[in-house]
Design a protein that fits this description.
single chain; 433 residues; alpha/beta; Rossmann fold; 2 domains; 7-stranded mixed beta sheet; 6-stranded parallel beta sheet; 19 helices; 45% helix; 14% strand; globular
């Protein structure tokens, strides 16, 4: 089939490349000529494992092309996927639909009357129906469930597909688009528009709630003298609960989870339904950042003024260069405002971090970041950081004190190497000898 993908950001570029990998002819569309030029040259403007190779492969073969022309796109594709962003509004918790509305209007103005316009963006419930009523071509909704760092895998081998449709024709077309994925046994849920829209927002709300739940338990453990890692381990053995997303830490960030749960609660308010618990989920998540800052102050004798603090991590999660709402950078910036000399190191997100937080210090290697540190904060769970030898690290720092803000380091190794080790929801251990 011939497909167009409107928007070539994180979602759109991944979807375009993966649709080409499935055998379709794909035209990516973006209003940013610099982004289009980069993609035509095989350059991906963000870090996503496996994606540069797919884009290079299919641009070279001619199966994947990019353009700034909606007119060209309208005459090219049978199916048009809209993959633009829905950021949070500046003056409220709601989602800003300006890009979604503009993309649908632009492609609808050039598409054939029998084309299918497919939304993949995360939108407030009711958006698909409103757009469908305003468009001549038929509209469907096919929400995305991508994890940064695993986006290619999640597109080519998803755990489910959701089709929000108003006709059997639209469902048939989507089944043809995803035929190789469905042939591999991927389950598909066909639903109405509101249900398809709610699947994505409900999934994000559930994951955020589970993360904030264990972080709330960490708060209880800290005052009660418990160990949240043992608590989490015990809970995870319960098949009804499971162990995934049940590790206490500095909390979630990124461009999706925080703004999506706020938009979901806001939309529910508009519909007359209270999802007040989501605001507490958000508040718990933000309190974990506060707690890391408090721990840093405590470990520096009550005041970080003049202390040299190393922050391991800038991206909001590993295998990504995405720094949107990054807990690591939020903590780093707050400590710098308190007078600390903060140095950040991240394997992929250094350029983005420098642009957004130019007043922080940066080190290109973990060795340079650790040298002379009074305190180390582990705030992004990169495997490179878990692999650091604590004996080697101790030889570099001035004072061996670390806060594991992700609950991922081997506490016994670090304390055996003489480190004072703190983690959220766990008793502090002093290995200084």
């Amino acid at each position: 089939m011939r497909l167009t993908v409107i928007g070539t950001g994180y979602l759109g570029a991944t979807h375009a490349a993966c649709m080409a990998e499935l055998g379709h002819e794909v035209l990516g569309v973006d209003v940013d000529p610099d982004k289009v030029a980069a993609l035509r040259a095989g350059r991906v403007p963000f870090h996503e494992p496996g994606l540069p190779e797919l884009i290079a492969k299919h641009t070279a073969s001619g199966r994947l092309r990019f353009t700034t022309s909606y007119e060209e796109a309208g005459g090219f594709g049978d199916v048009h996927f809209v993959c633009v962003g829905t950021p949070q509004l500046k003056d409220s918790e709601g989602a800003d639909l300006i890009y979604v509305d503009a993309a649908f209007a632009a492609i609808a103005g050039h598409a054939a009357p029998d084309a299918l316009l497919v939304g993949k963006s995360t939108v407030p419930v009711g958006t698909a129906g409103r757009l469908a009523d305003a468009c001549v071509p038929e509209v469907a909704w096919n929400p995305e469930f991508l994890r940064e760092g695993f986006a290619v895998e999640d597109t080519l081998r998803p755990d489910r597909l959701v089709f929000g449709v108003r006709s059997t024709r639209a469902e048939t077309i989507l089944r043809e688009v995803y035929a190789p994925v469905l042939a591999a046994g991927t389950p598909v849920v066909t639903a109405d528009f509101p249900t398809a829209e709610l699947v994505k927002t409900a999934a994000n709300a559930f994951l955020a709630t589970k993360i904030s739940f264990i972080n709330a338990m960490a708060e209880v453990c800290e005052v009660a003298g418990g160990d949240v890692t043992k608590l989490s381990e015990a809970l995870g053995h319960d098949d009804r609960i499971g162990s995934r997303f049940l590790r206490s830490g500095v909390g979630f960030g990124g461009g999706c989870l925080p703004k999506d749960i706020r938009a979901f609660a806001h939309r529910a308010d508009e519909l007359g339904v209270s999802l007040a618990f989501l605001r507490e989920v958000d508040a718990i998540n933000m309190r974990r950042r506060d707690r890391v800052v408090e721990l840093a102050r405590e470990l520096c004798g009550g005041d970080v003024l003049g202390a040299r603090i190393t922050v391991l991590g800038a991206a909001f999660k590993p295998d990504s260069d995405d720094i949107r709402d990054s807990p690591a950078l939020n903590v780093a910036a707050r400590l710098r405002l308190d007078g600390a000399d903060v140095t950040v190191h991240d394997p992929a997100a250094m350029d983005n971090a420098r642009k957004a937080f130019p007043l922080l210090g940066y080190a290109m290697t973990a060795e340079d970041a650790l040298r002379g540190a009074d305190l180390v904060l582990h705030l992004t769970e990169w495997p490179q950081f878990r692999a650091i030898d604590p004996e080697w690290a101790r030889s570099l720092v001035r004072r061996p004190r670390i806060v594991d803000g992700r609950g991922a380091l081997d506490v016994e190794r670090w304390t055996a190497a003489g480190w004072r080790f703190s983690a959220l929801g766990r008793p502090a251990l002093n290995g200084e000898g």
